[in-house]
Amino acid sequence: MKIVIPGGSGQVGTILAREFVADGHDVVVLSRRASNREAWRVVEWDGKSQGPWTREIDGAEIVVNLAGRIVNCRYNAENRREIMDSRVDSTRAVGEAIEKAADPPKVWLQASTATIYAHRFDAPNDEATGIVGGREPDAPDTWNFSIDVARRWEETAESFALSKTRLVLMRSAMTMSPDRGGIFDVMLGLVRKGLGGTAASGRQYISWIYDRDFVRAVKFLIDREDLSGAVNLSSPNPLPNREFMRIFREAWGTRVGLPATRLMLEIGAVLMRTETELVLKSRRVVPGRLLDAGFTFDFPEWKDAARDLCRRWRAQNG
Predict the structure, then answer these.
(1) Distance between CA 57 and CA 60 in Å, rounded?
(2) What topology is assigned to 2-317 in CATH?
């Protein structure tokens, strides 16, 4: 099959491209910089305009759109505009290319985010009963901005009436892989330095998914023609920050994990040019539709996933 991955040059796109190529598929990544250094074709696009890249969409069986500016930054006016525009513009461009294709793809897997759900502790958010956020009275403006982005992202994809293409909105949690620069690698760096302790109260939930389960879930969604709309891609067992980090330290073999107060996190976020939302918002998300459809996770528990990821990280990095 021919699989096109707009915005596939990042961590998650690379994970998928590697797997699809290993399976013998023809993979094309759309990137702002063309390259011939990968095991798959990389075609240039600008992420917003129609152009020669649209020929890759016409005749492809699958499109997995992952395009969007990185959110690990300060949410100033310029960065907010780039975060929003990069998602909305690229999604609109992909939708228009599919709409105009003589031979459109059978399925369009569109990236979204588990951040769309409300900050809460009382119950998990699945697709049927979960509460979409943005109206919490105590939520900071930056948190509401992230939810606005997620809403616009999904609304843009859903604005196209594509009779021959099934649309799936992948509300993904953090994908944990041992690759350099990924979220696991960043968090492990803190654990290794003795800084991987409880953040603030430690009550906030962390939702995550093991990288190979993420790939398996994507393949599952491709094969299951009865699944469309929003689907949560996350482990069925999110954990409070306190427990998550304790298990992380144990998996690596680190005894010390210095805790950080909310004020310390706010100061650190300013110095590191990021936002505390990534640490403080409670993302209690579960994959209701995947489980109902019969998908099984190889690593549903963080304890087993953390141990395996640490093992793989050591094997890759010595």
Answers:
(1) 5
(2) Rossmann fold (3.40.50)
